[in-house]
Amino acid sequence: MKEVTIIMATCQKSKRTFGIRAEKINGEWHFTWAFPIDAKAAGREGYDATTVKGIIVIDAEYPGCPHCGDGGFVHCGQCRKIVCYDGMNPRFKCPVCGNEGELTTAKEFDSIKGGEY
Question: Domain containing 108: what range?
Answer without folding.
Answer: 3-113
